[in-house]
Amino acid sequence: MKIGFIGLGNLGTPIALNLLESGHQLFVYNRTTAKTAPLTAKGAVATNSIEALAKECHIVFSIVSDDNAVRSICTGEQGLLAHLAPGSIHVNISTILPATAAEMAALHEQHGLNYLAAPVFGRPEIVTARKANFVISGKESARKQIEPLLKDAGGAGVWDFGDMITAANTVKLCGNFLIGAASEAIGESTTLAQNSGVDTQKMWSMFTQTLFNAPIYHIYSAIIANAKYEPAAFTMPLGLKDIKLVLQQADQVNQNMPLAQLLQQHMETLISQGKGHLDWSAVSLATH
Amino acid sequence: MKIGFIGLGNLGTPIALNLLESGHQLFVYNRTTAKTAPLTAKGAVATNSIEALAKECHIVFSIVSDDNAVRSICTGEQGLLAHLAPGSIHVNISTILPATAAEMAALHEQHGLNYLAAPVFGRPEIVTARKANFVISGKESARKQIEPLLKDAGGAGVWDFGDMITAANTVKLCGNFLIGAASEAIGESTTLAQNSGVDTQKMWSMFTQTLFNAPIYHIYSAIIANAKYEPAAFTMPLGLKDIKLVLQQADQVNQNMPLAQLLQQHMETLISQGKGHLDWSAVSLATH
């Protein structure tokens, strides 16, 4: 199947590679052209505009950095809305505000297009291992058609949250908040154990075999107990962007999220201290 | 084997029942005598003083409410130190400050006795199902001798943290802090999902099959997503007591723990609002 793919960053690249390896014909576009090289080396066709890509494909995946980048690839003279054939499906993997997903879905509908929200859980190595989890919401026909493609894209799980277009992005924000909160808790407790003379490797060996035997605690306790924050799979500014989206969503529903606020403060502190290049799981270092 | 058991509360009772069912002869003592009934019904001998219990047994387990209760059962004319035969082992399951464990170990040594720190992870139903986890530290001879008894007491795991007497209680405090932090995060995110119109049962079904597939998230997301805070397995004042111990330990090692402070504030708020009878996993309700 001819599939368009926009956004070849840290996560976009392994997702696109999975689609290629699953036998799909891929047309790729990235603002920075050099990033298309790993894909074209394996048979993808690089296009030099979204217009060119949109004219080749009836299904387009995108994974870009933020809400404005999503607006930018969709709207304007060079955007998807202007160039996709009616009936095409745009699958947006980007982590954005649920309200932006609703705004995009409405615009796509006006153009006779289908918009599917499909944010992903998975660091790059998880995607490469085809153990990512996609969360989807949107029209049923689009969900059914795209689900097998998300499996080809590296999704061990594709979790269907139904018709309400905002659902998938809300779940994604909840998940990233939960990961950030777990990182802060792992960081504070590991430092307490270290300062108290406890073998933290042994402690985490126990916790990850018992109470906290979950992928997130395995991955992040290994990073944090070994202070292996570089190279970052997900840097502090990216984590801060997501936590700000969480707080924006909380604001939209008139809710306080004091733990999310704490995470925001810590991330801002670390960035202001020149530690923005660290993995976002270093969040608790702000308290030292 | 003749074993003494002091403290028949929510957790003490199922632990003592497990020891009985494993074939040990049990001498029990509880300040409130009525609580010995479920044990004597199954063959345990109730004693009306710690002195009487200490004269029967060379191994005594205790699980009492706080550091002062531990001091009280150990010291004074009626305490274990005055009445246990030299060479006896006192296994203290109570959650206390690591410094109190060190203080107790030194006092026991002065009396020719052995003190083993053996705090436990497990709510009552987990203990009954023999899926608890004990964390131990103290002298090697005591660790080796007591380990099989802790398995008989319901320990699916007995995790050995070596000679340093303070280690086990430090790990226990880290674990309870991690559980409290997870409860706050689960609570804030579940409320965000609810307020945003997302099916939270479906959300937690996904998270507990993927990123957060761990006992703590299974147990607490079920409580929180269903707002089933009563009857409490562990009430707010008990949770607050433990979080205060966490902060005392942090203070002793000159460390800030902002997330632990947040949990303390929330628990104090809820108790002041008359919600102290709720399960401590209701912690995030303080933000409403």
What does this structure look like?
- 2 copies of one chain form a homodimer.
- The first copy, chain A, has 288 residues and is of the alpha/beta class.
- Chain A has 13 helices and 9 strands.
- In chain A, the strands form 2 sheets. In chain A, strands 3-2-1-4-5-6 form a 6-stranded parallel β-sheet, sandwiched between helices. In chain A, strands 7-8-9 form a 3-stranded mixed β-sheet.
- In chain A, helix 2 links the parallel strand 2 and strand 3.
- In chain A, helix 9 crosses helix 11, helix 9 packs across helix 12 and helix 12 runs antiparallel to helix 13.
- Chain A is globular.
- The mean pLDDT of chain A is 97.
- The interface between A and B is large, with 65 and 65 residues.
- Quick check: average pLDDT of chain A? 97
Beta-sheet strand percentage of chain A?
5-15%
Q: Catalogue the unreliable spans of chain A.
A: none
Helix content of chain A: 40-55%
End-to-end distance of chain A, in Å?
A: 52 Å
DSSP, total strands of chain A: 9
| Computed CA radius of gyration of chain A, to the nearest angstrom | 20 Å
Quaternary organization: homodimer
Major sheet details of chain A: 6 strands, parallel
Biggest β-sheet: strands ordered side by side in the sheet of chain A? 3-2-1-4-5-6
Helices and strands of chain A, in N-to-C order? EHEHEHEHHEHEEHEHEHHHHH
Output the structural class of chain A. alpha/beta
DSSP helical segment count of chain A? 13
Describe the global form of chain A.
globular
- Largest protein-protein interface: A-B, 65 and 65 residues
